[in-house]
């Protein structure tokens, strides 16, 4: 998959323009607050979702204007296609190959990107909730069944937690707990198995990318850590039984706390560099490299599903990385079209092949 050109009018601070992109690497260079991230965001919106900065649609329109228009010409499955999004207030109209679509969701099947933005560093730095969200987000996108089971699991979990609180006041209610345990364990077993399988795939690819970024100096490992032990992903019935046993073991704790203390909602993934937890022992550069490797790995797994490589949008990845790591990101990610922002002159000089776009107060020029 690749972007051929991008056109925008009244989009954030970007001056009306049409740019023709390189099929491999595109460096977006400029000082702070010039519009580099706005340009990546503009491409990202064609994936059908919302702004990766969580902005409302009307915030995408230039402060002084009433509408914005963005247009993408891209190649997917060897076919040249185009998509256009028009924003008026909080209203959005989507056109694919000139045909108006009912909703933005129709873009999802047409165009895909994987984005890295500095907020993704929380994958290493923050608590387990962010890492679970990373796994669940990817799996919900890949498998409808996962999305359904995940939503069911959370409903049942909320109901079980409410019941735990009620039992403290009305102990007779405890007999009704069994049915919630049974359901929680059924859906939970599937979630755990799918997450472990996905984490395994991520691990293999992330190892490969991290060894490239670090010039073979570091080994990255990812391990799924479950509150349910010794799991065989091919035996859902067995996982369910183990989950049920664990729910019974922890019943006293759960009643005391008023919430469920075991299950996939309490699981995590460990991200290890050279065998040590990146969160506790990794340098800034190592943590950034680990997250990048994870995101590149996510893109590889997605490529297998799409049978085509998604476009990579890398926002502000080069800072805190030494020149060898930067060289890998600028010149050695094979087969992907990459858009990468930077604000240091030395960083852009490392680009061996591809296009360089300079952003100055929203005006984009090709150098
Ligand atoms: N709707 C809008 N209309 C006009 N300007 C906007 C709008 N939304 C954001 N901006 C402006 O865009 C600029 C920020 O652009 P952007 O986030 O792309 O910066 P950047 O070049 O990526 O900077 P940095 O290197 O600091 O990350 C800000 O000056 C902001 O005021």
From TrEMBL:
Function, in words: The RecF protein is involved in DNA metabolism; it is required for DNA replication and normal SOS inducibility. RecF binds preferentially to single-stranded, linear DNA. It also seems to bind ATP.
Keywords (A to Z) from UniProt: ATP-binding, Cytoplasm, DNA damage, DNA repair, DNA replication, DNA-binding, Nucleotide-binding, SOS response
Keyword flag Transmembrane helix: no
Record-linked NCBIfam families: recf
Superkingdom of the source species: Bacteria
Name of the protein: DNA replication and repair protein RecF
PROSITE patterns: RECF_2 (PS00618)
Compartments reported by the entry: Cytoplasm
Species name: Ruminococcoides intestinihominis
Xref: SUPFAM superfamilies: P-loop containing nucleoside triphosphate hydrolases (SSF52540)
RecF/RecN/SMC N-terminal domain residues: 3-349
Family: Belongs to the RecF family.
Coiled coil (UniProt feature): none
Residues reported in the UniProt entry to bind ATP: 30-37
């Amino acid at each position: 998959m690749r972007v051929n050109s991008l056109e925008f009018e009244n989009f954030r601070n970007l001056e009306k323009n049409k740019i023709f992109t390189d099929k491999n690497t595109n460096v977006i260079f400029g000082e702070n607050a010039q519009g580099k991230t706005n340009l990546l965001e503009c491409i990202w919106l064609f994936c059908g979702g919302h702004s990766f900065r969580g902005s409302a649609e009307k915030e995408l329109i230039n402060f002084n204007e009433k509408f914005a228009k963005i247009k993408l010409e891209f190649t997917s499955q060897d076919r040249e296609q185009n998509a256009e999004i028009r924003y008026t207030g909080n209203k959005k109209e989507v056109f694919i190959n000139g045909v108006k679509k009912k909703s933005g969701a129709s873009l999802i099947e047409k165009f895909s990107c994987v984005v890295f933005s500095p907020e993704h560093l929380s994958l290493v730095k923050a608590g387990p909730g962010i890492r679970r969200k990373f796994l669940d987000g990817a799996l919900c996108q890949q498998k409808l069944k996962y999305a359904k089971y995940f939503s069911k699991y959370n409903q049942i979990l909320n109901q079980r937690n409410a019941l735990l609180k009620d039992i403290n006041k009305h102990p007779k209610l405890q007999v009704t707990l069994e049915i919630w345990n049974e359901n929680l364990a059924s859906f939970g077993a599937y979630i755990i198995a799918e997450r472990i399988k996905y984490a395994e795939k991520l691990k293999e690819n992330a190892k490969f990318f991290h060894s490239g970024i670090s010039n073979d100096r570091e080994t990255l490992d990812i391990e799924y850590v479950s509150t349910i032990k010794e799991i065989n992903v091919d035996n859902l019935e067995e996982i369910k039984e183990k989950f049920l046993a664990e729910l019974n073991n922890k019943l006293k704790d759960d009643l005391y706390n008023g919430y469920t203390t075991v299950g996939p909602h309490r699981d995590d993934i460990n991200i290890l560099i050279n065998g040590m937890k990146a969160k506790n022992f990794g340098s800034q550069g190592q943590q950034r490299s680990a997250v990048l490797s994870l995101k590149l790995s996510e893109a590889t797994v997605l490529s297998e599903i799409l049978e085509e490589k998604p476009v990579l949008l890398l926002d502000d990845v080069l800072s805190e990385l030494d020149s060898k790591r930067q060289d890998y990101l600028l010149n050695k990610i094979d087969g992907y079209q990459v858009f990468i922002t930077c604000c240091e002159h030395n960083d852009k000089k490392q680009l061996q092949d591809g296009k360089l776009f300079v952003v100055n107060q929203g005006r984009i020029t090709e150098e």
